[in-house]
Amino acid sequence: MQRIFLVDDEEIVIEGISTIIERHIPDCIVTGSATDGISARNQILEKKPDVLITDIRIPGMDGLSLIEDVRQFMPDMICIVISGYMEFEYARRALQMGVKDYIDKPVTIEKLKKSIENLGHFEIIKKAEQEHIPEVRMTETGHSAIDKALAFINDNYDRDIGLSEVASVVDMNPAYLCVLFKENVGESFIKYLTKVRINKAKSLLAKGMKVVDVSEMVGYNDCRYFSDIFKKHENMTPNEYKSSIRV
């Protein structure tokens, strides 16, 4: 039985997909849902579903950022992206992030069933899609957008920012910026943002500041989540890091 978690900013879409799964896909069950990226992230880490189905455009943290974020802790979770027509080509590039399929709106019984049934044939799907994905790379406008994005991240890492907000600042499609960022910075948006936050946190912890205060100062409202991220990247908890600095 596959446990599925749904994310869409419209409750009616979540209800529709849940009904389709309940009535037409007996081997699957919906174990939770959310209408924004932040709430989804917290629930996913708690519920640990087998499959995540998320729209790209969701508030708080866009779908691509959400996927990359939670897969730091759940690398085996299967991810399916829902995308609108205008994002269709860029959604395909999400395959590079480990996304195993995408569903173009509107979501229908046939599309959803086919997507879930295809999960066992991911390598075939991936190969077929990569053969038809146009290369990106880079215009002067693209370079300018990346520079602006990096500056924005470095100035706003202390807030709960997401790829969608950065994309809005540089006037670019979020999915396209995701690809452009990875190809030119050498790492994804989430990894870069996390690196900036962790480096700043280490500096603050070295000054003896409390972990809960440091967490908020580097953009994490959830101190426990901050500690998990810190430990993953530094192989020690924030408090252990403070102790090692003092020694």
Indicate how many domains the architecture comprises. Answer: 2
Overall pLDDT metric: 82
- Residue stretches low in confidence (pLDDT < 50, at least 5 long) are 121-136
Distance between the termini: 50 Å
CATH superfamily of the largest domain: Response regulator
Name the helix and strand elements from N-terminus to C-terminus, one letter apiece: EHEHEHEHEHHHHHHHHH
The CATH topology of the largest domain corresponds to Rossmann fold
CATH architecture of the largest domain: 3-Layer(aba) Sandwich
Overall geometry: globular
Strand content: 5-15%
Seen as an oligomer or otherwise, the chain set is single chain
Count of helices?
A: 13
Q: Which CATH class of the largest domain?
A: Alpha Beta
**Share of helix, binned:** 55-70%
Rg is 19 Å
Strand order of the largest sheet: 2-1-3-4-5
Number of strands: 5
Largest sheet composition: 5 strands, parallel
Task: Provide a brief overview of the structure.
The longest helix has 18 residues, at 189-206. This protein has helices at 11-24, 37-47, 63-70, 88-92, 109-117, 122-130, 140-156, 163-169, 174-185, 189-206, 211-217, 223-234, 238-246; strands spanning 2-7, 28-34, 51-55, 78-83, 101-104.
Architecture overview:
This protein is of the alpha/beta class. The chain folds into two domains: 2-130, 3-Layer(aba) Sandwich (Rossmann fold), CATH 3.40.50.2300; 140-247, Arc Repressor Mutant, subunit A, CATH 1.10.10.60. Helix content is 56%, strand content 11%. The protein has 13 helices and five strands. The chain has helices at 11-24, 37-47, 63-70, 88-92, 109-117, 122-130, 140-156, 163-169, 174-185, 189-206, 211-217, 223-234, 238-246, and strands at residues 2-7, 28-34, 51-55, 78-83, 101-104. The chain has a five-stranded parallel sheet, with helices on both faces. Helix 3 (63-70) links the parallel strand 3 (51-55) and strand 4 (78-83). The longest helix has 18 residues, at 189-206.
